[in-house]
Amino acid sequence: MLHFDDIVFGPIFSRRLGSSLGVNILPSKGKLCNFDCVYCECGWNRDGIAERRFPVLAEVEAALEEKMSDAAANGIPVDSITFSGNGEPTMNPDFPEIIEATLRLRDRYFPSAKVSVLSNATLIGRAAVADALMKVDNPILKIDASDDALIAKINKPVGTYILSEVLDNLRRFKGEFILQTMFLKSPEFDTTESEALKRWIDIVRELRPRQVMVYTIDRETPDKSLEKYTVDEMTAFVQPLIDEGVDVQIRG
Fold first, then answer.
1. What total number of domains does the chain contain?
2. CATH no. for residue 72?
3. Global pTM value
C-alpha cells in the first residue's frame, strides 16, 4: 500500500490536479485517519499503526520552502500544492496555521498554483478548520454515499459520523467547494443503487458545489472484493446533473 515518508513530495502527476506538489501533515510512518475507507490506497488503519507524532508548523513550513524554492529554481512546474498524505490532513492540530504558511509560500514561488486540500469533511464543524479550508483555492470535500448506513460500509468512520451534520456544515461554504465522490461496488454494497444515487444527486442539487469530482478505483485497495465503474457508466449516473449545468469532472 502507498505511504508517504516525506512531508513534501513530488511534484507528481495527478489525474485531477495536474503537476501536484504533495503535502503530508500526518505522521510519516503508517496511517492516521478518522475514516477507514475500503478503497484507501494507504490500506487499513490497523495495518498502518506506527508513530503518532504530527509534523509541526515549523517543520512543514521549512519542508515546503525547500521543495518550492528548488522547483522554482529548476523550472519545474507546480500546478497544485495538494494536502492529502497518510490520512485526514485536517486532523493535524496546526492545520489552520499550516494553510496560512502555505499560501504565503505559494504567493512567493508559484503564484499561479492552486492550493488544494483533500478532506473527508468530518472536522469542518470546527470554525478554525472551516475558515482555513475556505481560504484555499480547492477545498475538495468528500461525500461517498447518501446515508449513514452506506457510509458505515464504505468509509467506516472512527467515532460518530452523522451525514446530516456534515451537510449542515457544508452549507456554510455556500457552494464554494469541490465535492468528491467515489463510485464503486462490492458484494456488500453499491453506491449507485437507484435510491442511493437519487439521494446523492439531491444532495448535490441542494449544496450546489462549484464542481463535482466523481471517480472510481485507480490503485490497489485493502478490500479485494471491490469493483470499479467505467467512465461511460459514471457519466450515465451523473447525466441528470450535467444536463442541469453542474460542472462534473469524471475520472476513470
1. 1
2. 3.20.20.70
3. 0.91
